[in-house]
Amino acid sequence: MAEAARGLALRGHDVEVLTTCATDHYFWTNELPPGESEEDGVTIRRFRTVRRGSRLAGNQLEHRVQRGEKLSVSEEVAWVNARFRVPDLYLHLLAHARQYDAIICSPYLFWSTIYGAQVAPERTIVMPCLHDEPYAWLSIVRSTLSAVAGAWFLSEPEHQLGHRVAPQLAPRHSVVGAAVDVPSHYDPAGFRARHNLDRPFVLYAGRREEGKGWNRLLSGFAGALAHHRLPFDLVTIGVGDPAVPAELADRVVDLGYLESEEMPDAFAAAEALLQPSANESFSRTLMEAWLAGTPVIASAAGEVVTWHCERSGGGLTYGDDLELGECLAFVAEAPKTAAVLAERGREYVLANYTWDHVLDAMERSLVPFDLASRS
Amino acid sequence: MRVLVVGTVPPPGGEAARALALAAADLAAEGNEIEVLSPEFSSAAHRQARLDGFRLPFQLAAAARDFDALVLRIQPGLPFRPDARRLTRAAILALIGLALRGYSQVTIYLDTPVPIPWGLGGRPTKGLWSRATTVVVENAEDRKNLLAVPGMDPDRVLIAPRQVPARSVISTGWSLEHEEEPWAEVLALVRSRAATTRKMMGAGGERAEPTSPFDAPAPPGMPVHAAGLVVLRKVLRRLRQR
Fold first, then answer.
1. What is the pLDDT of residue A45?
2. pLDDT computed for residue B213 by the predictor
3. Are A302 and A329 part of one and the same domain?
4. More confident residue, B201 or A51
5. Is the ipTM, as predicted for this complex, more than 0.85?
6. What is the pLDDT at residue B115?
7. Closest partner residue to A337 among B12, B17, B186, by Cβ?
8. Is A254 found in the same domain as A199?
9. Which of B186, B209, B215 to mutate to test the interface with A (most CBs of A within 10 A)?
10. Which end of chain A has fewer CB atoms < 10 Å from its terminal CB, N or C?
């Protein structure tokens, strides 16, 4: 979203970002000062988050949602309020909504979107970043996606899911995609040297949590090591406790959180990127790995990543641990063919997911909103 | 000669597993009676048992009376975990040294990097190397490191001949008909290789609900306490014979 905001501002649009003072999506603690600032030509207004009410009741609702239980509408509202709220943002929108030609809310499951979209639905576009997960099927999500004027999806599978979640989907919806920056150069050798990586490795870049498939990946990797003679370590980048079991301690390297400037080099240095998550609405890491000429091995449970792999002919998908092992064995034993796959992936990214493509699609989608606000 | 071969053999494969299986096949072709004991429940072995840590020397001791010779592959987890403490390592090595006395010939295959924590030398490894008739390593670097251990006889340390990248029983290789557009072919190979392994594991070729190797049930085979009982029975039998 931030990059899209900067991109639209660079194309001459007057862009404001309304956001919170929080920097993490687990605790929503106010860490940045509230107020107005300007970055790269974009005005940023930050508002304090509020977390009040019974945590116990909130947690109980959370568990019920995750178990797929049907909640009443009032329980759903209580659930979304129990996580965090940004009342000041809502009030700002209420007061200033008419000053904006279009209001884009993202992602779908947060208070700021569920509530923000209600202020001026006729000029609101929701960019939901939908995953097929229990939250997506809440009735408040359905009504939000139905009530607003537009929706932006990142991929065709997400678009299809949007129709299933909200049969009366916002009338002006489209697949705009997401963009990745194309680095001017890569320094894989420097990355390996900086992080003392002297063995070949496969990479997992993302949050180390159950929902992203991290635990499953660890056990799959252990199984692959037991079944195949693999030269690879597993290097992981991201936030969250990796909780590596002792059995794997000498084959898993945790680099923790890395600055974004380091990421392209990490992708280029890896022998393959592993994407175990089934909950992806776009999968930026897939694109970044392909751009770096690195093959991709992704979970077939992820509808979106499978779609990318099939469309590009550039990534392998696995349905279980044995197939993961075979994919890794393929990369180890047939690196030249793996490089051909990665090249197909790079061509796919350059043809579909550069900023020019995505901003063009966003602007096309915004035209009716611009006309409506002028009339 | 009756020979016990201990270590992982295919399926599912891996070069070292294949090398051990080929060594066993060569011994069988020479007229020896072979029995393969593998820690991997999917291996095409005669017996499976957990062989990590102290379980290995107990299994070796229990089997010694039935075999003349031993081929032992030291591989990750057999017997040492990478995080094995120095004292544990020493105790396991000492017990293996004792267990090896029951065999007239001992061949040790070492994976690379050699999966013996805390290095190849030291007093605890003495029993292992002194009982080994032959030690087979995978490359010149490992041979050099092993020969740096005091008392190591260079004639007993061999480098394994590089295996022809032959396809194993289950391997279909990665050679493709359409190298320029490989995606569909590679994916089909991944699926078929995994399905073959699944079948050999008794899962009927269908994708199974994944199970975690961290909480997997113990593979079938002789548990360590059972091995201990075998040793005890042997002692009682010998006492009675006297």
1. 95
2. 39
3. yes
4. A51
5. no
6. 87
7. B186
8. yes
9. B186
10. C
Residue in chain B closest to A328 (alpha carbons) equals B190
DSSP letter for each residue of B86-133: HHHHHHHHHHHHHHHTT-SEEEEEE-SS---TT-S-SGGGHHHHHH-S
Asked if B15's CB is within 8 angstroms of A323's CB, the reply is no
CA–CA distance, A345 with B40 (Å, rounded to integer)? 37
**A48: containing domain:** 2-179+355-374
CA distance B105 to A161: 65
Q: How many CB pairs under 8 A join A and B?
A: 98
The architecture (CATH level 2) of B2-171+209-241 comes to: 3-Layer(aba) Sandwich (3.40)
Give the pLDDT of residue A266: 97
In B, which residues are within 8 Å of A329 by CB distance? 13, 193
CA B137 to chain centre: 13
Q: Is A338 helix (H, G, I), strand (E, B) or coil?
A: helix
Distance, in Å, from the CA atom of B153 to the CA atom of B161, rounded to the nearest integer, reads 19
CB B16 to CB A229 under 8 A?
Answer: yes
Taking alpha carbons only, the member of A254, A232, A257 closest to residue A328 is: A232
Per DSSP, A50 falls in state B
- The band of B53, judged by pLDDT with boundaries at 50, 70 and 90, is very high
Would you state the structure tokens that stand for residue A117, as one six-digit string?
A: 């979209």
Q: Residues of chain B with pLDDT > 90: what percent?
A: 23
